[in-house]
Amino acid sequence: MEYKESIEVSFKGQRNYVQGPDIFNKVTDILAQKKIHFLSISMTFNKMARTNIDLYLSDQKDSLNKEHNAYFEVIKDENVSLFGSIVENGDPITSRNEYPEEEIFSLAKINKDSQTISLLETVEYSNTEIIVSLNKRLLQQLYPDKKGKWLFTRFEVSGDITNSYKDMVLILKKNMNFKLTKTEILLDGESVGFIYFSMINQN
After folding, report:
1. Same domain? 132 vs 156
2. Residue 159 region, left (φ>0) first, then alpha (ψ -120 to 50), else beta?
């Protein structure tokens, strides 16, 4: 299987790059359209995309473009995997969406002792967007004196996380000297995966 699709994306807020959750949502939307059901998906972000993107899908890992902005693996069942990559195609991004992230922050409760953040009310954004924003907020509040920029670098989830929920809780599990942090995601008390962030220095 070999598949390619060009995707138009938007900037968000004042950012000059495509946010990771928007890329993830585009990928899972296309998988759903192609009726590709999966047990789990993991996506790793290697570099920021600043133009529109191309999606590549293959059942052969080695056939993918090596100069990708993001790479993902889809587990369809115990014996079948699909592999994919996201690559900037150079076409300029011409749209921008507002994203009042502070609204999400204002509805979150942080417990520094348990290293958790909970969403107190549902908001009108995708679960992926909310999870990324909450994790950034948790890390900023746990390490207020640490200077640098937090980047969303990896996402590992089981099944469909687009379903509605009553409770969302994130729990910081590991901090590997700020090179990589690992946070568990719970929806209605059930673990659905992990989100990873890294901190880079800003000069």
Report:
1. yes
2. left
